[in-house]
Write a structure and sequence with these properties.
alpha+beta, Ribonuclease iii, N-terminal Endonuclease Domain, Chain A, Double Stranded RNA Binding Domain, 4-stranded antiparallel beta sheet, about 55% helix, elongated
C-alpha cells in the first residue's frame, strides 16, 4: 500500500487511477475504507459493497443481453456468474492497483498482499460510490472497459468448450483424425482485426467463419463443422457483416445445441 501526504492526495491519485472525479469525495473515502481500518463497521465500505454488487450485476446483465442475443437465459446466467465472481472482481482490483489506496488495519497493512476477497469487495464498493456520485452512465463508463474484455474471453472459452472439444471428440472417434484450423483471411486495423478460419478434417474442409480473434474464429468454425457433420445448416456466417457506428462488427455466438450428435459421416 502506497504512502500519501494527505487524504486529499490519496483521493486525487485514486481519481486519476480510475479516471473519474468525485463531486462528493466522502463517498470515495468510504469506498476505500475496509472494516479493519474504520472506527466502526458503519463507517466502512461494507454497505457500499452491498449496493455495488447489485449495480455490477445490472451492468453485466445488460452487456450480456445486448452482446449475446442467441444465448439462453441459463447460458447468460453461467457467463454472468464467472464475470462477477470474486476472482474476476479481484482481478479488476489488481489491474487498477486498488490496493495502493485502501485503508486497512495494521494487521492487514503488514501483509505483502491483500486477500482477494477484500480486493473484490473494494471493487464493488467503488462501483457503488461512482454510481451514487455520478449515476449509472458514470459507472458504466468506468467499469465497462474493464469488464468487456473479460466477458469476451469468458464467452470464447465457454463456446470453445462446447464446440472445439466436441469436434475433436467426433473427429477422433469417427475418423481417427484431429481437426486442423486454417486461417483464410484477416481484415481490419491492428487494434480491430477480424479473422476467417475453416476447420478441416482429413481432406474435408468445412464452412469457414469469422471472429474477432483467431481463437473465436476457430470456435465458430468448429461449430459450423459440427452442424455440417450432423447434416444441419451451419449457423455461423462465412461473410463479414457490416460495421456498426464505432467501426466494430458485432458477432452473436451460436446457440449451444447439446443434442448434436457425437458421431457423424462425411
Amino acid at each position: 500500500m502506497a504512502e500519501f501526504s494527505s487524504e486529499d492526495s490519496r483521493i486525487a491519485e485514486f481519481e486519476s487511477r480510475i479516471n473519474y472525479q468525485f463531486r462528493n469525495r466522502e463517498l470515495a473515502h468510504v469506498a476505500l475504507t475496509h472494516a479493519s481500518g474504520a472506527d466502526n463497521r458503519l463507517h466502512s465500505n461494507e454497505r457500499l459493497e452491498f449496493l455495488g454488487d447489485a449495480v455490477l450485476g445490472l451492468i453485466v446483465c445488460e452487456i450480456l443481453y445486448q452482446r449475446f442475443p442467441q444465448l439462453t437465459e441459463g447460458e447468460l446466467t453461467r457467463l454472468k456468474s464467472v464475470v462477477v465472481s470474486r476472482a474476476s472482481c479481484a482481478s479488476v482490483a489488481r489491474s487498477l492497483g486498488l490496493a495502493d489506496f485502501l485503508i486497512v488495519g495494521k494487521g492487514l497493512a503488514s501483509q505483502t498482499a491483500l486477500p482477494s476477497s477484500l480486493l473484490a469487495a473494494a471493487v464493488e464498493a467503488v462501483i457503488a460510490a461512482v454510481y451514487l456520485d455520478g449515476g449509472l452512465s458514470a459507472v458504466q463508463r468506468f467499469i465497462e472497459p474493464l469488464l468487456i474484455p473479460r466477458i469476451e474471453a469468458v464467452a470464447e472459452d465457454r463456446v470453445g468448450e462446447n464446440y472445439k472439444s466436441l469436434l475433436q471428440q467426433v473427429s477422433q472417434k469417427t475418423w481417427g483424425a484431429t481437426p486442423v484450423y486454417i486461417l483464410l483471411d484477416q481484415r481490419g486495423p491492428d487494434h480491430s482485426k477480424y479473422f476467417k478460419v475453416a476447420a478441416q478434417i482429413g481432406g474435408t474442409r468445412y464452412r469457414p467463419a469469422w471472429g474477432r480473434s483467431k481463437k473465436e474464429a476457430e470456435q465458430r468454425a468448429a461449430c459450423n463443422a459440427i452442424y455440417e457433420i450432423n447434416h444441419l445448416p451451419p449457423p455461423c456466417p462465412d461473410q463479414l457483416g457490416p460495421a456498426n457506428e464505432d467501426g466494430h462488427v458485432d458477432f452473436a455466438f451460436p446457440p449451444q445445441n447439446h443434442s448434436l450428435s457425437e458421431s457423424g459421416d462425411q
